[in-house]
Design goal:
single chain; mainly alpha; 12 helices; rod-shaped
């Protein structure tokens, strides 16, 4: 599997797991497979390449080459591949005895995808949910739980920071103000997921777009007056705070995956 970015890595890894292919079953036994061959499929890939080079060198050898050494190299790489195939026999299920299994590369891809998914799912709940929601190959219905996880985390983050809300004054926020904040968290996540890769859509690009989304999606209203004013508290200021926080969470989530991009390339 070839990765060009952490975002694409998440999409490809989860696509591999959910795909209707023999490799999908790999993830049901991933812990057992890792115990036998390790987390990285690079070892198997390297052995396959080494064995092919040895065979090619022997087939192209001249009478002046050390044929015995070349034969020993072929036998050595063939033996090590046989040992690894035995470790993977429950997965590969190859009936082509004496040859490399047809799905060796699928196993390599599956092991690498397993690394990515493991890295995602070791993160805090709201970060892994954000990664799947923004970059996973899932439908919106499949992502309902992840969406709610991020929305609630974002809402609680704002409450913990004791952010001031429009019209709050010096007292505590009203139930209506808190409801608007909760809805704005939902809108911010929707916008963030729309404008990020692989969608790169327009999202809620203006105050009126946010107001329209509130009305059509939630059946609610939000006051977008003074949205861009910096001399007073407005929902626009809260909106920018929410988007900044989502950007930061995305950075945290993807940075833990970045080392795997180079490793798998």
């Amino acid at each position: 599997m070839r990765y060009i970015s952490a975002r694409q890595m998440i999409f490809e890894a989860y696509h591999t797991r959910r795909g209707n292919s023999p490799i999908a079953d790999l993830f049901d036994n991933l812990k057992r497979i890792r115990e036998k061959v390790g987390d990285n499929g690079a070892k198997l890939r390297s052995l396959i390449a080494e064995h092919k080079r040895n065979i090619r060198a022997l087939s192209e050898a001249s009478p002046f080459d050390n044929l015995e050494a070349l034969k020993l190299a072929v036998k050595s790489s063939e033996r090590r591949l046989s040992e690894m195939r035995t470790a993977l026999e429950d997965v590969s299920k190859s009936s082509n005895e004496g040859h490399l299994p047809d799905n060796d590369w699928k196993i390599v891809n599956g092991l690498e995808a397993g690394q990515v998914i493991s890295a995602v799912e070791r993160q805090p709940q709201h970060l892994q949910a954000l990664a799947r929601y923004c970059f996973g190959p899932f439908t919106r219905d499949e992502l309902a739980e992840d969406r709610e996880t991020v929305e609630i985390a974002l809402y609680r983050e704002m409450l913990n920071e004791d952010i001031r809300l429009p019209g709050q004054g010096k007292g505590r926020p009203t139930a209506q103000q808190l409801e608007t904040l909760r809805y704005l968290c939902m809108a911010a996540l929707h916008h963030h997921s729309e404008v990020t890769w692989p969608y790169s859509r327009q999202g809620l690009h203006s105050p009126n777009a946010v107001r329209k989304w509130f009305n059509e999606y939630l059946g609610a209203e939000i006051d977008v007056h003074y949205w861009s004013r910096k001399d007073r508290i407005s929902w626009g200021k809260v909106w920018r705070t929410l988007l900044d926080r989502l950007d930061y969470w995305e950075y945290l989530s993807l940075s833990s995956l970045a080392p795997l991009v180079e490793k798998a390339a």
